[in-house]
Description:
The chain is α/β, with parallel strands linked by helices. It is built from 14 helices and 16 strands. It has helices at 39-57, 73-82, 86-103, 119-131, 209-221, 235-250, 281-286, 291-299, 311-336, 345-360, 365-384, 390-407, 421-435, 439-451; strands at residues 4-7, 12-15, 23-28, 61-66, 135-137, 143-145, 169-170, 182-188, 205-207, 225-231, 255-261, 264-266, 269-270, 307-308, 454-459, 462-467. The strands form 5 sheets. Strands 5, 6, 7, 8 and 9 form a 5-stranded mixed sheet that branches. Helix 9 runs antiparallel to helix 12 (390-407), helix 10 runs antiparallel to helix 11 and helix 13 packs antiparallel against helix 14. The radius of gyration is 27 Å and the shape is elongated. It starts with a strand and ends with a strand. The mean pLDDT is 95. Adenosine monophosphate (AMP) binds at residues 29, 31-32, 40-41, 43-44, 69, 230-231, 233-234, 261, 263-264, 270-272.
Amino acid sequence: MSVRLYNTIKRAKEEFIPIDDKKVGLYTCGPTVYNYAHIGNLRSFVFEDILKRTLKFLGYKVTQVMNLTDIDDKTIRDSIAANIPLRDYTQKYKDAFFEDLDKLRFDKAEVFPAATDHIKEMIELIKTLVDKGYAYQSEDGSIYYSIAKFSAYGKLARIDMKNQRSGVRIKTDEYEKDSVADFALWKAWTEGDGDNFWESPWGKGRPGWHIECSAMSMKYLGKTFDIHTGGVDNMFPHHEDEIAQSEAANGVKFVNYWMHCEYLIVEGQKMSKSLGNFFTLRDLEEKGYNCNAIRWVLISAHYRRTLNFTLEACKQAQETLKNFTSFFIRLKEIADSDKKGDDISATVNSHMEKFSEAMSDDLNISEALAAVFGLQKETNKLIASNILGQNAAATVLDAFKKFDSVLAVFEFEQKGNDIPEEITKLVEERQTARKNKDFATSDIIRDRLKDLGWSVEDTPKGPRISKI
Ligand code: AMP
Ligand code: ZN
């Protein structure tokens, strides 16, 4: 089955052909660790996780590199404001980021290089750019990239370079397209940087944000690699500048496929730290939403579409997933029984094929989820007619586990430790009452459980407890 991906640089879907047969090199721009990631950031990271998991599902071996931006204008600004050394300040947010990745069930990157550990590589790369005439030193000792020297500048973001202001410089890490200018590779130390500087052939200073990703991607994935991703706001200037640096230094194409994730928005506006309209994963957990439901919300819209985030969607996702868990428990019971039934492998295979085809088509998640819901519906029909046998139930369960190797949202068992002790005790009391044929007490306890938000169903294997 051929895989098609939307390549931003071509503004079109293309067949995906890796450089090395079934091996894929994937570079994903990671978090700037000056604060907790918000769920807009996490949407971009989850998209990358789905991409990686899909490629693995389709038989590729993926090497993913996700950098940790621990040197930039923001980490330095905020660590100085907090009066905490940069390394300690960013460590807190690196740890929090890894907690988020675990909670959201990421298939973690093979390498998480931090900028602070790769200064040597960045200096080497800047030296090459200076030697080749693409970079120059300004009066304050900083090194700038001369965009006029790289004729392909603007090819990713499609910038019309006719009116570019040659020789105009910009020192900040982030800027808009209308201020396209020579950008900083090495920023000479100023008092505002405090203790944050490294020695270099150009005096003490620090690298610009863009050179970090060029140096680290090259180190771990080579001069040319398969896929580079990020959120849409990374396209300019960050990715444009990465192309300029890497291609000028190496003289070969930098990346074959560029992929960008659209924004997660709230009430029509991009979720961002500067607008203050953001939720972190912790905020949502405190509101009572579980991480599987949040992941479901983040994956359920196609990555090239804006995702309008609402708490209502989290609530619905929680219900949907609870429903799936009950379905899996029922399937497990049938699979563990000796019930005979029809062979349904043809139905399972056709849904698996639909899922696989949909994900191969630029991660078409709505079609893929339609296949998932479709198989659940078909199976439920067979359960209702009492013709789903042991083998068929096991086959369906396997199929859902396969779906989940990409989606990573399902719970296949009701988590025991999710049931409060008070509820377990009541259920035990009810069992005792039932054994003693005291059905009046048993019913009273059932009502009490209902008031507390729990339902209990009697099955041949004992009571099944679930949240209402
Ligand atoms: P940062 O930590 O600011 O470097 O951002 C990490 C990632 O989140 C980058 O790939 C950004 O493009 C992405 N990002 C930032 N805000 C949003 C948003 N509201 N929706 C989706 N992605 C975002
Ligand atoms: Zn980057």
